[in-house]
């Protein structure tokens, strides 16, 4: 005869319950171990980084390093100042190069228009205006100079401000001529 076991269904469920608990506890243990390893690893890393920071701070606090750091900061300030000066000088150089209204050619052209009776005391060039002060033995020589200057291609306008006998040697005339240059640019 066969025995009938009425508790058999309860025994299988109990065994399944134990197996599922093993899986749950095993997974929890693995997660716990991972968390513990991560904690230890991060703590060690933080400790090593703190120790490295302390070492670097001590090295930076050394008087030799502080002296070198101060020198480097001074050099950097000087470099910044020199860069500003370089920029300014470059701007000035470009402006002067672009404003090339005074050249050897212009001076030679003006020199070629001067009659023999005329001598210059002063020649000022400001922006696009040339101011000529001089003396002449004859009034017509001043008019001839004005006429010759007007014929130059670079002159926009030429006019005589004054012809006077005051301030000149006896028997000669002092004059003042203004010339406006054409805008080349």
TrEMBL record:
InterPro entries: Extracell_DNA_Util/SecSys_Comp, PilN. The keyword Transmembrane applies. Keywords: Membrane, Transmembrane, Transmembrane helix. It comes from the Bacteria. The chain crosses the membrane at residues 22-41. The keyword Membrane applies. It holds the Pfam family PilN. This is Tfp pilus assembly protein PilN.
